[in-house]
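Researcher: We plan to redesign the surface later, but first we want a full-length starting point. Tokens attached.
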């Protein structure tokens, strides 16, 4: 496995692979890898000849009161997991190289940043889009693979959105799960239970988004859980008049001091996601 830190070296490696006729798949991460990230690597491998995985904790997408300084960082462990999963190139750029000066230009996400996750985290999506654009420009992949858990996040690049990977009890894998103590870990199951409750109500014939949202909130308001939002949305995170199989239920909540997100596409259901015994 190649490990690259320099931007020019990364671009040169990618272009050399392209010249050999090889298709490049890219999995951008902030590190602290878990089985969810590694399933994205597998998916990229299925659609590409070479897989690049990046580890970069992007300061632009963290607000002033968020957890940038304490965000889990474990490069040595990440390096081992990436090698075990046959990653061809591990790209670990330095913050000073990515942002040599205060970035004067940021990509505006438009109206999508004014609702739900965007409203809850002002500036977050501008930071996400800015770093993704920079990474695409540096890595120059043919395909990029993102997980659906970060649903609202999801250049001439094909984007593949993979199903959410969950623990066997339903908790969506997240690097921030490491913050949870045992009691909080149990309380966090309210997110996936709320998604299942909405899904079951929809499969039972209820299509009124307001009714579905109330049902989900009843479950989400569990001991130790502070809901931020639960909404039934369609394309571009817009509200829907009636929930159909394409509608998505999106959730954000705090469990203790930890902020977690989750979602489900109603027509696919939580059971359509990938359940694993997380060892990563």
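Model: Full-length starting sequence:
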């Amino acid at each position: 496995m190649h490990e690259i830190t320099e931007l020019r070296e990364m671009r040169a490696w990618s272009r050399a692979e392209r010249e050999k006729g090889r298709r490049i798949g890219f999995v951008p991460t902030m590190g602290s890898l878990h089985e969810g990230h590694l399933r994205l690597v597998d998916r990229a491998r299925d659609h590409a000849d070479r897989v690049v995985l990046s580890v970069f904790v992007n300061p632009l997408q963290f607000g002033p009161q968020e957890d940038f300084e304490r965000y889990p960082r474990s490069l040595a462990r990440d390096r081992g997991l990436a090698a075990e999963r046959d990653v061809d190139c591990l790209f670990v750029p330095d913050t000073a190289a990515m942002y040599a000066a205060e970035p004067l230009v940021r990509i505006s996400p438009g109206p999508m940043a004014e609702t739900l996750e965007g409203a809850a985290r002002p500036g977050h999506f501008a930071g996400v889009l800015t770093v993704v654009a920079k990474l695409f420009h540096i890595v120059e992949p043919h395909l990029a693979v993102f997980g659906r858990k970060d649903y609202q996040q999801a250049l001439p690049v094909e984007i593949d959105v993979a199903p959410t990977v969950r623990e066997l009890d339903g908790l969506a894998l997240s690097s921030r799960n490491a913050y949870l103590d045992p009691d909080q870990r149990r309380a966090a199951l309210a997110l996936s239970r709320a998604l299942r409750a909405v899904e079951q109500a929809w499969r039972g014939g209820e299509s009124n988004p307001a009714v579905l949202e109330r049902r989900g909130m009843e479950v989400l308001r569990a001991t130790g859980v502070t809901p931020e939002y639960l909404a039934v949305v369609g394309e571009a995170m817009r509200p829907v008049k009636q929930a159909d199989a394409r509608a998505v239920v999106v959730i954000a909540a705090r469990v203790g001091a930890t902020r977690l997100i989750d979602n489900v596409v109603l027509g696919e259901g939580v059971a359509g996601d990938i359940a694993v015994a997380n060892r990563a």
